[in-house]
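Subgroup meeting minutes
Present: P.N., E.W., G.H.
Scribe: E.W.

1. P.N. recapped why we're keeping a running log of single-chain structure predictions: easier to compare across weeks, and new members can see raw inputs and outputs side by side.
2. G.H. added today's entry (93 aa).
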Amino acid sequence: MSGRKTDNDQRLWFRSSRVFASNGSWYFHTREGVDMGPYETQFEAEIEAGILLKLLKEADPTDSAGPAQVIREFVLDSFDMGRPLAPSLKSNG
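Output recorded in log:
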């Protein structure tokens, strides 16, 4: 048996370069152009980035709201958990 990767491998990866520190807190950047945070540690930001990525991959592709709805629910859940996020949109300029 070879150690070759197959299409059946179900791993979720994210680039650690999406996790960054700013003003003493940690954040991660989404492909949708949203910076999510603040988090107390880099590890926490990396874990949450992985969770959001999994939710985005599991989302119904026929849902017209798409990734925006998943991100909205992720942020609202953070309020329910008592650790509210303050996401920000980054302009392309």
